[in-house]
Amino acid sequence: MAFALRRRDRDVDDRPGAGTRATAATAGAAGGLLITLARIVRLVAFVVAAIIVAAILFVVFEANPSNGIVETISDWARWLIGPFENLFNISNRKTEVAVNYGLAALVYFVVGALIARFLARGGLAGYRARNRRVP
Predict the structure, then answer these.
(1) For 127-132, which contacts have Cβ atoms below 8 Å and span 24 or more sequence positions?
(2) Are 29 and 129 in contact (CB under 8 A)?
(3) Helices (H) and strands (E) in the chain — how many of each?
(4) Is the full-model pTM beyond 0.85?
(5) In b/e form, how buried is each residue of 7-46, taking b as 16+ CB within 10 angstroms?
């Protein structure tokens, strides 16, 4: 048993900070992954908000609803704004769509930005750990 413990001790790197370097490298790799994930979340939130804003513009400017592009984007937007549909009942259809869809776009964009910020903050902490000087 003592032989196994001594052998194990010889395999451990005795240089100062060797264990810290390995941990910092792992933190840096995880940090890079979190930064990439934050960028993806931010992009998805932007695309969702852009789809909803496009649907608002189609209604306000009275785009042809039988057009394939208008129909597809309007269907996607209707699906995305599910919880926000008929949130405010306004007599003017254009105003109602602009308010309800606009609120949905704002919420998607803000929540996506907050999630991306938290992910990026964790990623930056990993980069800082990786780049920290070890004696």
Answers:
(1) 127/28, 127/31, 127/32, 127/35, 128/31, 129/23, 129/24, 129/27, 129/28, 129/31, 130/24, 130/25, 130/27, 130/28, 130/29, 130/31, 131/24, 131/28, 132/24
(2) no
(3) 4, 0
(4) no
(5) eeeeeeeeeeeeeeeeebeebbebbeebbebbeebbeebe
Residue 66 amino acid letter = S
Specify the residue for token string 């451990």.
12
| 124, 28 Cβ separation under 8 angstroms | no
pLDDT, tens only, 108-134: 999 999 999 999 888 877 666 555 555
